[in-house]
């Protein structure tokens, strides 16, 4: 289980892609806290440009523009994998992505990927933005819900930690 907070999206996606192709299962939680290099405004313009790409005949045919941070990460990983082959499809089935930390994974140990951490890989002073805010501004409706669920989880974790410390 990887904790997405503080990781750069492209670097994290490439590590995930290689690992799932090798047969390892991966779960990424807290996708809304993943970082993207470049200013927020520039990344928003890029995403809006991507939103304009659609099928002229019938937009329902695709491309499909997912707004949730977890789906954005999933699509980034999918672009690094031969997803139309059987091997690629099986690899993508080994990947699970979540916004927040849902119940089975809140009790599991979460790890970081040093090769993708923003504090280690991005030069100090460079601009970056958070995927959750970007998603929210292009149409992700669940930022508040995920935030409240995360607060509840944090409160439970704090109680558990205090009890364990004694």
Number of helices: 8
Task: Classify the beta-strand content into a percent band.
Answer: 5-15%
Shape: globular
What distance separates the N and C termini? 27 Å
- Main pleated-sheet profile: 3 strands, parallel
Radius of gyration: 17 Å
How are the strands of the largest sheet arranged? Answer: 1-2-4
Low-confidence stretches: none
Order of helices and strands: EHEEHHHEHHEHH
Strands, count? 5
Helix content: 40-55%
Structural class: mainly alpha
pLDDT averaged residue by residue = 95
Oligomer: single chain
List the helices and strands and how they pair.
Layout: E1 2-3, H1 9-21, E2 26-29, E3 35-37, H2 40-51, H3 69-78, H4 86-93, E4 95-97, H5 103-106, H6 118-121, E5 128-130, H7 131-137, H8 143-165
Parallel strand pairs: 1-2, 2-4
Antiparallel strand pairs: 3-5
Helix pairs in contact: 1-3
What does this structure look like?
It is built from eight helices and five strands. The protein is mainly α and 166 residues long. The strands form two sheets. The chain has a three-stranded parallel β-sheet with strand order 1-2-4. It has a two-stranded antiparallel sheet with strand order 3-5.
Give the structure's gist in a few sentences:
Helices cover 49% and strands 9% of the residues. The chain has 166 residues and is mostly helical.
Keywords:
three-stranded parallel β-sheet, 8 helices, globular, two-stranded antiparallel sheet, mainly alpha, 49% helix, 166 residues, single chain
């Amino acid at each position: 289980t990887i904790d997405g907070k503080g990781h750069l999206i492209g670097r994290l996606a490439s590590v995930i892609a290689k690992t799932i192709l090798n047969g390892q299962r991966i779960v990424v939680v807290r996708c809304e806290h993943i970082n993207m290099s470049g200013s927020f405004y520039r990344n928003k313009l890029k995403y809006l440009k991507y939103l304009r790409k659609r099928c002229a005949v019938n937009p329902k045919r695709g491309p499909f523009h997912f707004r949730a941070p977890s789906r954005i990460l999933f699509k980034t990983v999918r672009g690094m994998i031969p997803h139309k082959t059987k091997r690629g499809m099986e690899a993508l089935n080994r990947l699970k992505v979540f916004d927040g930390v849902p119940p089975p994974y809140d009790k599991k140990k979460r790890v970081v990927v040093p090769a993708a951490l923003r504090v280690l890989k991005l030069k100090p002073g460079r601009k970056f933005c958070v995927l959750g805010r970007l998603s929210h501004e292009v149409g992700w409706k669940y930022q508040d819900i995920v935030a409240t669920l995360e607060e509840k989880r944090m409160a439970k974790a704090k109680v558990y930690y205090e009890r364990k410390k004694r």
